[in-house]
Amino acid sequence: MPGNNAAENSIRPLAVGRRNWLFVGSQQAGERAGNILSLIESAKLNGHDPWAYLKDVFERLPTLKDRDLAQLLPHNWKPPTASASPETPASVPATAIAQAA
């Protein structure tokens, strides 16, 4: 008999959080928290690291044109390449980085 553990585990953070978010501060703050949580869960469902996704989105958002906003949605987002990342110097070969990991 198949169980529903996967479904229960996927909603557990929301169920536990309900009690914590009861006094979020205001209606507007609750809506903002809901938007961020939706982005985080959507990023996870699309196989992205939520931290990397949100960091990239928040860095690119101020300079992006309105017509290009759709590329930041989790299902359209592409992680930045390693050579464009400030943490990865362009002079270090990718094989050296992979071997160090």
UniProtKB/TrEMBL annotation:
Signal peptide: none annotated. Pfam families: DDE_Tnp_IS66, DDE_Tnp_IS66_C. Transmembrane segments: none annotated. Residues 75-101 are annotated as: Disordered. This is Transposase IS66 family protein. The lineage of its organism: Bacteria, Pseudomonadati, Pseudomonadota, Betaproteobacteria, Burkholderiales. Residues 79-101 have a biased composition (Low complexity). InterPro entries: IS66_C, Transposase-related, Transposase_IS66_central. Residues 38-75 form the Transposase IS66 C-terminal domain. Residues 4-31 form the Transposase IS66 central domain.
